[in-house]
Amino acid sequence: MIATLLLAAAIPSTHDLGKAEGQCRVDEKGPAFLVDVNGLKDRKGRLKLELYPADDADFLADDNLLVAAGKPFRRVEVAVPATGPVQLCIRAPGPGTYALSLLHDRDANRRFSLSVDGIGFPGNPKLGWSRPSAAAARAVVGSGPAHIGIIVNYRRGLLSFGPVEK
Question: Name one Pfam family in it (predicted).
Answer without folding.
Answer: DUF2141
